[in-house]
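Curious: why these numbers?
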Amino acid sequence: MNGMEIPGLGYPEVLIKLKEEEKQKKSYKLVLDFRDGALSIIETNRLCEEVHREFRDLSEAEVDYLGTEINDHAYDENLDIHCEKCNKFYRPFCRLHPLFKIPDREPRKEELSTKVYSQLTLPILFRIEESKIPNAGLGVIASVFIPIGMKDGYAWLIKNGDKKFYIDGSDPKRSNWLRYINSPRHEDEQNMIAFQTNSRIYYRVIKPIRIDQELLVWYGSSYGGEFVESEDGGKSKKPVKNPFICTPRNGP
């Protein structure tokens, strides 16, 4: 042996073995599947430019971590998310129907003199303009195609065990862009649903949202009532705006 040579390293049989192990590792992609307008996880070798649009690479370890099925009695609201398609709880979410979080935009200090904070947090995928729903005020409109599986989240604590926290989102200087999302005129018009996980509220896309369509969340008893109760203990009525924040008035 000369100098710092280590037995085994650099020998042909070792290199061949390492290459074989590397080949056995699978790689994955999070993609938009144009056929159903939804997010999907596929093996890299199945990627087809005609039907898929790439979002990001996923390692085998990341994919293996996804989609652990949880029995209803073992459900933990801080760890698990219910999949409507499968009607099951998964940790952290369903592998067949994955989620991808859209982060808020981080406003720059010099921008705060031109617009209110809540509008500056709007991701580039959307725009805020007058809603097509009569008397609804401003609404959030898609500037690009938004597939099933996208989610937008509040960074506000809503419920922690038996305790409930009510955050006033009426002030556009202290809230984020989700305050502008309206309720549809009827349940069939909705394209998003609300759910809570890890003490935070998220909106999930359940129907493909086309360019120039408004983002709409139905605040029915199956969602709003799960998170917010009125001060006298009764269920709150369905407001025009977000039910997970207490506002002194409807509208932006």
